[in-house]
Amino acid sequence: MTDVVTTRDQDGIRIITLNNPPVNALSVAVVTGLRDAVAAAEADGSVTGMVVTGEGSAFIAGADIREFGKPRPKDAPLLHDVLDGFDAISKPLVAAINGVALGGGLEVALGCNYRVAGHKALVGLPEVNLGIIPGAGGTQRLPRLTGAETALDMITSGKPVRADKAAALGIVDAIADSDVVGDAVEFAKARAAEGGPYQRVSEKDDKIADDRGNAGLFENWRKKIARSARGFDAPWACIDAVEAAVNLPFAQGREKEREIFTGLVNGDKAAAQRYAFFGEREVARVPDIPKDTPVAKIDKVGIIGCGTMGGGIAMNFLNAGIPVTVLEIEQAALDRGLATVRANYERSVKSGRFTAEQVDERMARIEGTTDMGAFADVDMVIEAAVEKMDVKKQVFAKLDETCKPGAILATNTSTLDIDEIASATSRPEAVCGTHFFSPANVMKLMENVRGAKSSKETLATVMAVAKKIGKVGVMVGNCDGFVGNRMLYAYTRQANFLLEEGALPAQVDKVIYDFGFPMGPFQMSDLAGIDVGYYVREERDKRFGLTDKRTSKIADRLFEMGRYGQKNGKGWYLYDETTRARTSDPAVEALILEESGRLGIERREISDQEILERCLYPLVNEGARILEEGIAARPVDIDMVWLFGYGFPRYRGGPMFWADLVGLPTVLERLEAFRKIDPDWIEPAPLLRELAGAGKGFKDFAK
Ligand code: HSC
C-alpha cells in the first residue's frame, strides 16, 4: 500500500498495519493510507473482515501533533470523516490494540466495530492536555460505551486506563492472550461467520439513556474541575462535548464536537500547550551534549540533609527504586527527617496513591546515618545543607575525601556559585548543581547547573537521573540564582516596589493569581518563609554589594518584626491557627504606608494591568539577558523552568512564549516607560531591543 500503511491477508481477514515510527501518529499520510486500505478491503470480494493495528510497540498515539496549526493539503482526508465512513463498511472491522491507543488512536479503535487489546495496552483521550478536545468522535463514542460519568472522568483528566480496566469499563471487547493481532483475526473471523449487522458504537444508546436530560450530572462535573481547570478552556469544553453526546443524536453531537474542536485547536492556549508538550521533551536534548555521551550508572545515592528539601529529594529516588542514604549531623534531626518522609508517604496511602505495602518497600530503601563514611560506595551525592558558602565548601571537601572515584557530587543550592563549591574538591569535573523545587517530591523541575569544569559525562548523567526519577531536567549555566531564581528576583523586586508606590499585597497577589499562577509573590513569600528570603538576600548582598541600588525594605522590616510567614502564622498576611485561612493585616498595610512616607513616595492608584506588566515584563527581560549570556541555551529551557518549577500557567507556554504572544515591541515599550519609575533596575536587555526592532520574537532566537 503506502510506506506508512501496509496490508496482508490471513484467512480472509485483511490486516491493515499503520507504520509511522516512533508512535504511529496519524499524519495526513497515515489517515489517507488507512482510509484507502479500508476502502480497498471493503471492495475486495476475497476479504471477509479487517483488523487495524500498529507496527512496533504503539497502536496509535493520536493525531500527529506536529501538523496542528499548520496548513493542510487541500485534499487531505479528515480523520473524523474517515472514521464516520467506517460505519458504512459492511465487513467486521476490529482494532487490534497492541500498545498505546491515545487520542485519535483510541478514536480509530472506537470507530471500528470491535476492539481486542493486548495486556499492556493503554487507552485514553489525553487531548485535554494539549488544550483541545478529542475531535474525531471520541467525545461522542466513548460515553456510548461507558456512560457519561466514566467518559467525563477520562476525557477531562486525560488519564489513560490499562487494558483490564478498559475491558471492565466496556471500552474493549476482549483481552488478547499474547498475540493480539492473531486474536483479533480470530475475533473478526468469528463475527464474519455470525454475519452482520456488526456493532456500531455511534448507534449504541443503552449506556447514555439514563444520563439524558440530567443537567445536574454535568453541573457537578463543572464544579468538580473548577479548581484544577482554572484558566484552561479545554476541560470545560470536554464537558460540553460529552453533554452533547448524551443529549443529541450522534450526527448532531459530532457536529458540536467538531465546532468546539476547531474553536480550540487554533487558539493561543492550545498552541501554548502543544509547545509545552514538545518543550518538555526538547529540554532533554542539550545542544552541546552529544546523545552518545557515556552516562554513569546511579544505583545508590547519598543525600546530605534530611529536612524538607533533603527528605523530599530522597522520596524521588525511593519511588524510582534507587536506595538512598541520608546524612544529618545529629541523630535527633535524622530521626525527625525520616519520620517526616514516612508521614508524607502515609498521607499518600490515605489519598490512595500508594498502598501500605508500597510505602514499606520504599522505606526499606532508605537508611539514615550521621557518619559521612557511609557515602564511601554511593554513586551520587546530593547536598541539601544550609545555603552558606563556607558550610558547602567544607562539606564538599569532605565528600571529596570520602566518595569513591567517579561518584557525582551535586549540590541542591538555589543560588550559590557552583565553581566555588567545586573548587573545594580535587574533582571539579564531577561537581554540578541539581536544584530541586519545593515540595521536592512533587514539583517536576530539576534545574541542573553546569560548572565551568563539570564534565559532559557528569551533566549527561544528571539529565538521565532526572528522567529516571520522573523529573523534567533543564540544563542551565552557573550564575546567581541560575535561571529560575534569577528571573524571580526581577519579578519580586518590582512587586515590592509596587507596594511602596500604592498597591497592597492582596491586590498584587490577585493579579498574579488571575494571570494563572498558583499564587502571587507575597503568598509565595509567606509559604517559603520571610526569614528564608531574608537570609538569601543577606548572603547575596554580601557577595554582590547591591546596597548602592535602591531595594525595598518592607520584607526586611517584616523579618525584624518576627513575621516569618505561614510557619508562625503571620507574615504578609495573618493565618488562622487551625484553618490556615489567610486575611490581610492592617498592621502590614500601616507598615507599607509608613515606608512610602519614609521614602517620600506619594502613593497612587495602580491598575491591575500595570501590576501585571511591572511584575512580568522585567521577568521576561531577565530571561532575555539569560539567553544573551548563554545561561540558558534556548527560550524553551527558560519556559520549562517556569512551567515545572514555578507554576507559570501551562496554557501560556512560559514567559518567553507568552512574551512573543504579547509582542516584543509592546514589552519593550512598557519597560521603557517603567524605567522612568525605576531607573536602578529596569534596563531593557539588548537582545530584547534587537528582536523587537527586527520584528522578531524569542522563537527566532538562535545563538
Ligand atoms: C489527537 O489525537 C486529536 C484527535 O482527537 C484527532 C483530531 C482530529 C480532528 C480533525 C478535525 C479537524 N504526534 O513521549 P515520547 C513523539 S491529539 C507527534 O518521548 P514515550 C514525541 O514528540 C494527540 N509526535 O515517548 C517524541 O518525539 P522526539 C493525542 C508525537 O514512550 C516521540 O514521539 N495524543 C506524538 O515516553 C516519542 O515520544 C497524545 O496526546 C504525536 N501524537 O511516550 C499522546 N506522540 O523523539 C501524546 C508522541 O522527537 N504522546 N510523539 O522527542 C504521549 O503521550 C507519549 O508520547 C507516548 C509515548 C505515551 C505516546
Shape: globular
Provide mean pLDDT, rounded.
96
CA distance, first residue to last residue: 44 Å
Strand order of the largest sheet: 12-11-10-13-14-15-16-17
- Low-pLDDT stretches: none
How many β strands by DSSP?
19
Features:
six-stranded mixed beta sheet, 49% helix, globular, single chain, eight-stranded mixed beta sheet, 29 helices, alpha/beta, 703 residues, binds (S)-3-hydroxydecanoyl-COA
How is the topology of this model organized?
Blueprint: E1 5-10, E2 13-18, H1 28-43, E3 49-54, H2 79-86, E4 93-97, E5 100-102, H3 104-111, E6 114-117, E7 122-124, H4 138-146, H5 148-157, E8 161-162, H6 163-169, E9 174-175, H7 180-194, H8 206-209, H9 215-225, H10 234-247, H11 250-265, H12 268-282, E10 301-304, H13 308-319, E11 324-327, H14 331-350, H15 356-363, E12 366-369, E13 380-383, H16 389-402, E14 408-411, H17 418-422, E15 431-436, E16 445-450, H18 456-468, E17 472-476, H19 484-501, H20 505-515, H21 521-528, H22 530-544, H23 554-560, E18 573-575, E19 582-584, H24 586-599, H25 608-628, H26 635-646, H27 655-662, H28 664-677, H29 686-693
Parallel strand pairs: 2-3, 3-4, 4-6, 5-7, 6-9, 10-11, 10-13, 11-12, 13-14, 14-15, 16-17
Antiparallel strand pairs: 1-2, 7-8, 15-16, 18-19
The protein binds (S)-3-hydroxydecanoyl-COA (HSC).
